[in-house]
Amino acid sequence: MFRTTYGDGSVKNIMASNVNVAVVIGSSSGIGLATVLEIATKGFFTYATARNPA
């Protein structure tokens, strides 16, 4: 089970078998940013990392 916290402070528990998760590195710009946006619109829980915040 995943536990996720949203920007508004709400928390939701999600069963792992029903969740698509993606981790994208280098997502502050370019292909990484485009990838994060595309994957998120397809319903994935997306974790994005970057050295320099945009």
Shape: globular
Query: How many separate helices?
Result: 1
What is the string of SSEs from the N terminus onward? EEEHE
User: What's the gyration radius in Å?
Assistant: 12 Å
Beta-strand proportion:
25-35%
Q: What is the β-strand count?
A: 4
Mean pLDDT, to the nearest integer, reads 81
What does this structure look like?
- The chain is α+β, with helices and mostly antiparallel strands and about 55 residues long.
- It has a domain at about 20-54.
- The chain is about 20% helix and about 30% strand.
- It contains 1 helix and 4 strands, in the order βββαβ.
- The chain has one helix spanning about 30-40; strands spanning about 1-5, 10-15, 20-25, 45-50.
- It has a two-stranded antiparallel ribbon. It has a two-stranded parallel ribbon with strand order 3-4.
- The termini are far apart.
- The mean pLDDT is about 80.
What keywords describe this structure?
single chain, 54 residues, alpha+beta
Fold blueprint:
Blueprint: E1 2-5, E2 11-14, E3 21-24, H1 30-41, E4 45-48
Briefly say what this structure is:
With about 55 residues, the protein is of the alpha+beta class. The protein has one helix and four strands. The mean pLDDT is about 80.
